[in-house]
Write a structure and sequence with these properties.
Length: 198
Amino acid sequence: MIFVVTGPSGSGKSTILRCVFKDLRGVDFSVSHTTRPPRESERNGREYHFVDEAEFKRMIGRQAFVEWAVVHGHYYGTSKAEIVLKSRGSDVILDIDVQGARQVRERFPQAVSVFILPPKFAELKRRLRDRGEDDPATIALRLKTARREIREYKSFDYVIINDRLDRAVLELEAVILGARCRTSVRRRGIKAVLDSFL
């Protein structure tokens, strides 16, 4: 099953997901490609596959992406190969921007989509400033984009307001566990139970 998690930059998507990956079995993280430079805390192949713009455009030409977009002046995309690799034997979670989430939902209507909202604009601004990874111009651009992106929440299956990390983590875990219990997902197990009654 594919889970799409999105929200404005600074809403806490990555922090929530780190906790979920520690708590839940059978979920794997889809590592996106990007042309933006890595932050100090990031490692190639873990948070992102860092590539130059020429390589990214070659991948676009080969139709290697499930989704891609230009966000804050950099290219971001999820490769088809990554989805295939990570979905073998586990659910896959995509931590992507709003544009990419829209593309994935169009391509995979059965995907479960989750929008992460910050509790307030002022809190989002504080988080972006306090993480110390962006200059003031980049923060201003991220905040401007966030004002537009938050309006997209209506088109998602679930909304989590990240005002308390522990609660946000539990809510995302509940979404994942609940989706796994859907009748359409459990057909094989249900059939085995029903056959045992014959």
